[in-house]
Amino acid sequence: MPRNEEKKREWGKEYYAKHKKEIRRKQKEYYEKNKEQRRKYLEAHPEYREQNNARSRKWYEKNKKKCKKYRQAKRMKFPWLSHYHSAKQRCNNPKDKNYKYYGDKGIQMLLTEEHVMILWLRDDAINLNRPSIDRIDSNGDYDFGNCQFIEVGENSRRRNAQRRFVQKRSDHD
Fold it and tell me: What's the alpha-carbon Rg for the chain, to the nearest Å?
């Protein structure tokens, strides 16, 4: 590679490092501004989406091992993220199999990724065999004061105990 090209590349990296926030802000602004236009284009040209999906699948098939390594590394570096995304899906996505138990009942996900990370560290979840995010008040939302990380087994025991309690109360009524 010519020396001039290396200098340009170095300069580009330095510039990006200095102006990263501004560049990202402009990208987000552009994305939001053109969101509707992109949606209309994709509706008018469904073949573009199909071609793009085919390209993505082809790339994934070629790079499966790389993708797997990336996911594993991310999971090791940010283990709380999977719990965050699962809880968010249960509350917000009607297509999720557990939505009827969470989102349909009005339970909301009010935690951010940072909140879940703090909970993870506070409850020392890294030392649990199978950590699970638990709502202390099972009728409450996923918010910072109502959540904790506990073992999966303990979480299911609590849930079953609450179900039995509710059944017994309804039997006596």
Answer: 23
